[in-house]
Amino acid sequence: MNIHPLRIGRTKVPFGQFYGGLEGFSISDFANDKDHFIWVPIHAYLLEHPTVGPVLIDTGISPAQAAHRDYYRGSIMEYVMDADEYDLPAEQTMSARLAELGYRPQDVRAVIITHFHEDHVGELNLFAHAPVYLRARVRTTRWCPRDPLPVCDRPAGC
């Protein structure tokens, strides 16, 4: 089995949130402290399984998220996120990364989502044909207002 890390752009996060944890870090801090940001790479992983075929772990961000202007319009996030929250060069989109390995999105046989943060599910719509797997606990502890796909709950040992 081969595992390929796929860099799918980068995100800007507050230094304190990333290295200090969330304790004592409020949404107000996140929205107002614009002086202590660092850029962090966003990764997904492609597993080339010998019998199943290509399996994707997370999907990274989408070009719409990186463009920002319309993606967050009408939500609280429009006021919280910076216009340059994400950086996604054309050669780092999910489709481009898959193409580098000789695949198209429709070749992916399954998607595993580690959690519902938007930088992990941004391109999930590219894989509407594939089953999506995540632990039941992730599904029940994180409310996702726009479930893009039906989700298959798997035993915790998966």
Write the layout of secondary structure elements.
Layout: E1 2-14, H1 15-20, H2 27-32, E2 37-49, E3 53-57, H3 63-67, H4 77-80, E4 86-87, H5 94-100, E5 110-112, H6 118-121, E6 132-135, H7 136-141, E7 152-154
Parallel strand pairs: 3-5, 5-6, 6-7
Antiparallel strand pairs: 1-2, 1-4, 2-3
Short account of what is shown:
By secondary structure, the chain is an alpha/beta fold. The protein has seven helices and seven strands.
Describe this structure in words.
Residues 141-158 have low confidence and may be disordered. With 158 residues, the chain is an alpha/beta fold. Strands 4-1-2-3-5-6-7 form a seven-stranded mixed beta sheet. It has one domain (2-154): 4-Layer Sandwich (Metallo-beta-lactamase, Chain A). Helix content is 24%, strand content 27%. The protein has helices at residues 15-20, 27-32, 63-67, 77-80, 94-100, 118-121, 136-141; strands spanning 2-14, 37-49, 53-57, 86-87, 110-112, 132-135, 152-154. The chain is elongated. The protein has seven helices and seven strands.
